[in-house]
Amino acid sequence: MSQDYLIKFECSECHSINYHSHKNKKMLKDRLELKKHCPKCKKHTLHKETK
């Protein structure tokens, strides 16, 4: 668990932070992009990892 870090996912359309997750930064160097449901936009949008 020492290598895992908490990351935030931000909606690419409305820029609200909707989801949190863990990521092993030694294994995954790139930023994650997932299609998730945004409650503010009320549709599935691309969510990108923020700092």
Query: Helix count, per DSSP?
Result: 0
Biggest β-sheet description? 4 strands, antiparallel
Q: Give the helix level as a range of percent.
A: under 10%
Question: Into which percentage range does the β-strand content fall?
Answer: over 45%
The secondary-structure element order is EEEE
Termini distance? 19 Å
What is the correct CATH architecture?
A: Single Sheet
Query: Helices and strands: which structural class?
Result: mainly beta
Main sheet: strand order: 2-1-4-3
CATH class: Mainly Beta
Count of strand segments: 4
Named CATH topology? Rubrerythrin, domain 2
User: Stretches where pLDDT falls below 50 for ≥5 residues?
Assistant: none
Mean pLDDT, all residues = 91
Shape: elongated
Number of domains: 1
Question: Topology of this protein?
Answer:
Blueprint: E1 4-11, E2 17-24, E3 33-38, E4 43-50
Antiparallel strand pairs: 1-2, 1-4, 3-4
Features of this protein?
mainly beta; elongated; Rubrerythrin, domain 2; 51 residues; 4 strands; 0% helix; four-stranded antiparallel beta sheet
Care to describe what's here?
This protein is mostly beta strands and 51 residues long. It has a single domain (4-50), classed as Ribosomal protein L33 (Rubrerythrin, domain 2, Single Sheet), CATH 2.20.28. 0% of the residues lie in helices and 59% in strands. The chain contains no helices and four strands. It has a four-stranded antiparallel sheet with strand order 2-1-4-3, with no helix packed on it. It is elongated. The protein starts with a strand and ends with a strand. The model has no long low-confidence stretch (mean pLDDT 91).
